[in-house]
Amino acid sequence: MNIAAPGHGNSTKPIIRPRIYWEIADALTLAKRNLVQIPRIPEELIFSTIQPVMFVLLFRYVFGGAITGTGTTYVNYLMAGIFAQTVIFGSTTTGIGLATDLQKGLIDRFRSLPMAKSAVLTGRTLSDVVRNTFVVIVMWTVGLLVGFRPQGSILAWFGAAGLLLLTSFAFSWISATIGMAVRSVEAAQSAGFIWLFPLTFASSAFVPTQSMPTWLRAFADRQPVTIVVNAVRGLLLNKIDATTIWEAVAWCVGILIVFIPLSVRAYNSRTAR
Amino acid sequence: MANQPAIIAEGLRKRYGTTQALDGLDLRAEAGTVLGVLGPNGAGKTTAVRILTTLLKPDAGYARVAGLDVVKDADALRSQIGLAGQYAAVDENLTGYENVEMVGRLYHLSGSAARRRADELLQRFDLVDAARRTVKTYSGGMRRRLDLAASLVMTPPVLFLDEPTTGLDPRSRLGMWEVISKLVSDGTTVLLTTQYLEEADQLANHIIVVNFGRVIAEGTADELKTQVGGDRVEMTVGPGSDITRATEILRPYSVGEMAVAAERRHLIVPVAAGAQQLAAIIREMDAAGIAIDDIALRRPTLDDVFLSLTGATTDAADLTTAPAERPLAGSPR
Ligand SMILES: Nc1ncnc2c1ncn2[C@@H]1O[C@H](COP(=O)(O)OP(=O)(O)OP(=O)(O)O)[C@@H](O)[C@H]1O
Ligand SMILES: [Mg+2]
Asked: If you count Cβ atoms within 10 Å of the first and of the last residue's Cβ in chain B, which end, N or C, has fewer?
């Protein structure tokens, strides 16, 4: 080790900017950190893509023939559900990533730095939105290959994509709260997933809710996944329903209003080990 | 912060379930000095470092670092401290360079300053060749050095190092000591926990020994050694020599408790004026026809201090006490 003079020079002074600037800049620094890692561990992204592809193939070819009453081809009906499920399942990487950072002691380091408090969480949720965008593009392609034919305007399709990413972002914050609350990466993994199965399957994602028993339908018709799926479906199939879209947006905003402060609080009170 | 200590803590308490990790810990480090924190596993060293670096809130007590309260002024304090925790907190999937640069950005350096700092620090810690590899491929010692590099991005006025040289090879350890000494000579205050007593001896101006979350001894390395005892003569007599006779010869030289291990023909005698006495003892033994296999004047090391203070067991089981005397604290080598 050679002993260079430590940099007491002026240029190693921190830059002074308003707080909001650093909330964003620090979050972007950390989002970048997460994103550069994705190509370095490609298996993670590959597996999180394979799973929804399997769902597409299974539903399209195994269950598809038996499901009726969708008012369009089953694959056209299915894809909105697949997109929603993909981004919602994909949001669990947020909690897993945070729990991993906690276990590795990285959160301790971040918390000892004079950086914006929310940045670790915002950075992670943002990078997961980017990651989810990629997966949605892959799913779109797979859908086209198995006969998915979106209708209506391209603008509406972008609207659907925007709504899906908002959903991804909102569910990432729920996942972040779980990741900061549990004691291990494994727990973040299972606790993050388990409740999503009933939520996505007891919805209009894969089958029309009319086929469900009344008590289940009462739940399915009102829960956020159904509302997001219906809104996205409308946008993709040229049956736009403004009320449903606003309801879906309201759900996402509501989730953000509740879970951003919750997860920030959990972050501030947690340290590793 | 001319007159006030760089680090001061009073009555820190922290409890985990039924474990009282800190039980009224007091400590103090003057600006520009090194405070060494010694203590066995589980003594509460890491807990204290966590509190002083704002990661943990104490249940009771208060602490100020660089004049700032660790709880009330936590936000302001974070720009005044650097921390290298006990476990290297580096991102495995980033390169060494990316890790340090990211920390620079999070300290709110400009992009160019962060990059320049990363280059300087990687060079200083001998990591230039590995700078572009992901940390996953680093050895434990390399991670440790990278972690330290990251904690020095801002050359903060107060630096906390939790076992900084654990897992380093001797060359890296010496290099680390040089880096720390250089920082201190430039005015940085360092709080250093360590298991290597030699490290505390080398670096620390002031040492506290912690056990069960409390300070059980403190002072300079020399003061602590004197607390355990001064110089002593350790002697092994030849096979078949008269140990009783040897003990009698030594008694007048002893200023404290003498210890005799008859089976090993080993005697330990605390003495006042080391060197001359050694010569006199050798002459007397010679005159009495007692063969000496080995004789040495030994100062107590911090290891002796540590073991005697923290009540660790010694290998003194075979030491029988000379009449009316108790065995010495500390273990003969
Ligand atoms: N998060 C925690 N939950 C429960 N107990 C804890 C926690 N952190 C520390 N402890 C306990 O508090 C005590 C002090 O721990 P600490 O890590 O401060 O010791 P230490 O002096 O750093 O030890 P070592 O030399 O092994 O690093 C130990 O008994 C430890 O088990
Ligand atoms: Mg420790």
From this structure: C
